[in-house]
Amino acid sequence: MLDLDTRGDFARHRRLRSSPAMRRLVAETRLSASDFVYPLFVVPGQGVRAEIASMPGQYHLSLDQIPREAGELRQLGIPAVLLFGLPASKDEDGSGAYADDGIVQDAVRAFKDADPDLLVITDVCLCEYTSHGHCGVIIDGEVDNDRSVDLIARTALSHARAGADIVAPSDMMDGRVAAIRETLDDEGYVQTPIMAYSAKYASAFYGPFRVAADSAPQFGDRRGYQMDPPNVREALLEIEDDINEGADIVMVKPALSYLDVIAKARQEFDAPLAAYNVSGEYAMVKAAAAAGWIDGPRATMEILTSIKRAGADVIITYHAKEAARWLAAGG
Ligand code: PBG
Fold first, then answer.
1. Atom of ligand 1 at shortest distance to CA of 172?
2. What is the structure's pLDDT at 330?
3. What's the predicted TM-score (pTM) here?
């Protein structure tokens, strides 16, 4: 029996959950299409728009598809793309990464031609361009830090020359942010920001991406340069170093298993913080939704909200387009 005398002795939290409008009024976290960066994969050829098997709804696109893509992003209010390239051929030193007529450099020019207002961010790494699939130069069976940094800086410069608005090193070599900053400044690109993949973990959640980008290491793994999942204090050190080296935006990657890292980074640093909702996180939602085990749109919005609630200012996500559509429809 309810004792009527105790009514009022507890808070009625449910009052503010009573309708969609009430819930919207008191929502502490609000997603917007302007939070999103949309990653995409550019390939050689003509008329290519080929769905990526490991990432349903994502496509390999040839350069001629870029105007259509740019138009769609503008219409959806998504402010930025993050470009990855699959070169026609690979070599030991990943020379396709820093070729002035490389696939990403061409794609940057095509996007800027199609829509100068769309921000073009380039992933700066060697792994899609090296025959061995590592993110740097191999010497005696190891990825050599300092020689890799030279090529990474060269890659960033070639992207800036092509017109990239932001360069985003994802290799996890030490000292690469300082080297990129110095190279860009020396060449007159003092205004080009660096978004550093600062706390990038050696994660199983990159699996679908490595199929899409054909960038799986041919021997060994990336644990010698990407971070070890148990560590959070080390992530803060990495972020601090990147800020001191000149990073303008710092990033935590992946997002979902690292929401605590995002929250800590937000508490400790004032630089804009990005989080990368990676390929494996995307593929799991798509697979479970296709099997009818979860409600895909609801799960997606819950995930993106959690990343923002944890403290990310910028969310890099393959869900960007569909989420922008759902937001526009009032979801
Ligand atoms: C390149 C790079 C990777 C991703 C972004 N940049 C792959 C990797 O480090 O193996 C992963 C993105 C994703 O899984 O969505 N170094």
1. 16
2. 84
3. 0.96
